[in-house]
Amino acid sequence: MASQSQVLVEEKSSVRILTLNRPKQLNALCFNMISRLLQLFLAYEEDPSVKLVILKGQGRAFCAGGDVPPVVNNIVQGKWRLGADFFRDQYTLNYVMATYSKPQVSILNGIVMGAGAGVSIHGRFRIATENTVFAMPETALGLFPDVGASYFLSRLPGFFGEYVGLTGARLDGAEMLACGLATHFVLSSSLDALEADLCKVGSSDPSFVSTILDAYTHHPYLKQKSAYYRLDVIDRCFSRRTVEEIISALEREATQEPDDWILTTIRALKKSSPSSLKISLRSIREGRLQGVGQCLIREYRMVCHVMKGDLSKDLVEVLSAFPVVLSS
């Protein structure tokens, strides 16, 4: 079965190591992979011999997102409900991970975007490295940060989640650790040794896993131009009530103190789908007051409206402009 070659399974004592294995597609999650992961996670939860699940990616990505082009093809053919099935199973997997009774360690040694965040950030332990690149780029694609992002972005310090979710800004491993998206930072050269030590865990008590991770963790310095140093500006601007007010506030900041980072941020917002920005801002704001299950249910309703074209046609228009991507 394709799903078995796309999600590799290693059994090591009481640990299960799952490897996303579509390296040429940067491990983008297709329907078969999501179904397989859901099946495995549910089985492991019921299996008393399994104490820990490790999730990682083959190649230079952990997971660069969901395999959305087939969904867009379904929409174009008037079969949006088939796309709805893809998102329903994906969000169910996200919920299972968010409420999992056993520790999940996600090794984010590479690209982590969109759906890749959904299958990692909800787990208890998220390991960033010097190779990690994180982003939620959905607003540029006519969508919105989903996979429970309205839950985890809204819980970042200040209004950093609004900044990350609306601009699609890329974060490195040090920034992920600083804002709480990652729980640990480990050098990639130490990952094999870390994995070997984790495989010796004979308990599902997270404190045992935590002790091992703490022995390997580093405390990296943020790069000099990190957006995380701009939290004061981010909080001043991204706390505004509407997208228009956020952009106006950033433009005022730019006139007072010319700054490449602010100009780049303004450009990113102006290049994104206007309707996606508005939907995303409201979603993150509502997520602050909701549990993860409520967020995922609401996001499912939202994505169905997007696929039906009730809100805008941007998703189909943007992805249809890339015929090579659509052929995957």
From TrEMBL:
In this chain the Enoyl-CoA hydratase/isomerase domain maps to: 15-317
- The reply on keyword Coiled coil is no
The molecular function terms of the Gene Ontology recorded here are: 3-hydroxyisobutyryl-CoA hydrolase activity
Signal peptide coordinates: none
Q: What is its EC number?
A: 3.1.2.4
Q: Which InterPro entries match?
A: ECH_dom (IPR045004), HIBYL-CoA-H (IPR032259)
Q: In which pathway does it act?
A: Amino-acid degradation; L-valine degradation
The reply on keyword Hydrolase is: yes
Q: Which GO terms describe its biological process?
A: L-valine catabolic process
User: Reaction catalysed by this chain?
Assistant: 3-hydroxy-2-methylpropanoyl-CoA + H2O = 3-hydroxy-2-methylpropanoate + CoA + H(+)
Q: Mention any Pfam family matching this sequence.
A: ECH_2
Keywords for the protein's UniProt record, in alphabetical order:
Hydrolase
| Protein family (similarity comment) | Belongs to the enoyl-CoA hydratase/isomerase family.
Query: Its biological function?
Result: Hydrolyzes 3-hydroxyisobutyryl-CoA (HIBYL-CoA), a saline catabolite. Has high activity toward isobutyryl-CoA. Could be an isobutyryl-CoA dehydrogenase that functions in valine catabolism.
Q: Which PANTHER family match?
A: 3-HYDROXYISOBUTYRYL-COA HYDROLASE, MITOCHONDRIAL (PTHR43176:SF3), 3-HYDROXYISOBUTYRYL-COA HYDROLASE-RELATED (PTHR43176)
Record-given protein name:
3-hydroxyisobutyryl-CoA hydrolase
Lineage runs:
Eukaryota, Viridiplantae, Streptophyta, Embryophyta, Tracheophyta
